[in-house]
Amino acid sequence: MNEKVVDDWDPRSDVIAHDQAAAYDDMRRRCPVAHSEYLHLSLFCHEDVMRVLNDPETFSSAVSSYLSVPNGMDPPEHTQYRSIIEPYFSPQRMTVFEPVCREIAISLVKGLSRCSEVELNAQFAQDFATQIQCAFLGWPKDLHAPLLQWIRKNHEATLTGDKIALDRVALEFDTHIRGLLAHRRQAGNDAPDDITSSLARDRIGNRLLHDDEIVSILRNWTVGELGTIAACVGILAHYVAEHPEVQQLLREQGSLLPGAIDEILRIRAPLIANRRVTTKPVEFGGRVVPIGQRITLIWASANRDETVFGDPDGFRLDRDPASNLLYGAGIHACPGAPLARLELRIAMEELLAHTNWIALVADRPPANAVYPAAGFAALPLWIE
Ligand code: HEM
Asked: Which one Pfam family would you cite for this protein (predicted)?
């Protein structure tokens, strides 16, 4: 691939912005390995995405000029940092966090008026994601509003690809987090016993983690949490409103929620894509791909690939969970998945428990979110 390659598609066109899922379905069928200046070489098929995930030596994650722990790292460095991160999402930590998570969900659901139209994003999903994130990490409540603004600005800067704006947004986040770390260091033994303090005590080899490593870890958790959890809650609530039979089933059999949540989010992706770069020449679908080629894995398409899932929109609870790429696969598979699954189960349990029914609003369709966001930009729903 070189500068003269003609673009196969425009990821920022109005057609794609209007309905990302439909547009990616179309690409997967028409041009499953597609070049564009903006997203480089995009892979739309499950098989091609799996090939990349299973071969981190050929497909490196070192795609960004920013330090990105552990997302932008390759082994052996990646392995070391993963071993620091994974224990924060252990079953024990999840058990301790569950009641905190439930309390937040209950208080937000109780704040929704009954027998009325609500804007689920603004009145529930975003607040749920932000409050949960701050509670999990031990961050103060006055960070809720700046965090919400930050994630919006981060999406805008990513969409335009404006390097100066991206630098500014990264710096803004760093400033907040460095403030929290400085506060904890000054407090010494009186520092709150939370995850942020614990990261400040974590060691890599024989040294403490540097501040820029901690900031990067927390930035990636924040993007994972705020960017996707709010989108997931919107997608799930909208799906059950649009599919009364699924809503009825989940109201009657709450134990089906975990599998149903993963399946709904397979059908309607909360995270569109992630990136890689080749470390040697390869071939995809007859296309010769040179070393140094940037690649975009389109989760939102691979997880709807009919060669693996049959009808992409078919809601089925008996699928092989290993084929669902919601949380990725291989060495970079989402370490936050246990937390995400816990939060989404509780959000849905409480939404269903404190309402009699969730329905679409007849004359007010939701507005789809635009890449790199997924889910809905606005989501009016009727709550009884
Ligand atoms: C429903 C919500 C979430 C979804 C759909 C999701 C999805 C994913 C996916 C697909 C990957 C693989 C990326 C790749 O291969 O390049 C990933 C990685 C990652 N996720 Fe999540 N995630 C979610 C929530 C979270 C949460 C709550 C956290 C942390 C609090 C988190 C932290 C991370 C990190 C740090 C990585 C990078 C792992 C690595 O490079 O080794 N994610 N996530």
From this structure: p450
pLDDT digits (tens, 9 = 90+) for 91-107: 999 999 999 999 999 99
Domains, the chain, in order of start with CATH, read 14-383 (1.10.630.10)
Q: What is the whole-number distance in angstroms between the Cα of residue 186 and the centre of ligand 1?
A: 32
Q: What is 153-167 written as a DSSP string?
A: HHHHHHHHT-HHHHH
Q: Is the peptide bond before 76 cis (omega within 30 degrees of 0)?
A: yes
The answer to whether 383 and 358 have CB atoms below 8 angstroms apart is yes
Question: Could you tell me if the CB of 312 is within 6 A of ligand 1?
Answer: no
pLDDT digits (tens, 9 = 90+) for 262-300: 999 999 999 999 999 999 999 998 899 999 999 999 999
Q: What is the pLDDT of residue 38?
A: 92
Nearest to 17 by CA among 38, 3, 32: 38
Expressed in angstroms and rounded, the spacing between residue 332 Cα and the centre of ligand 1 is 8
234 lines ligand 1 (CB under 6 A): no
328 lines ligand 1 (CB under 6 A): yes
| SS3 of residue 287 by DSSP | strand
Is the CB of residue 221 below 6 angstroms from any atom belonging to ligand 1?
yes
Question: Considering Cα of 147, then 339, then 230, then 22, what sign does the dihedral take?
Answer: positive
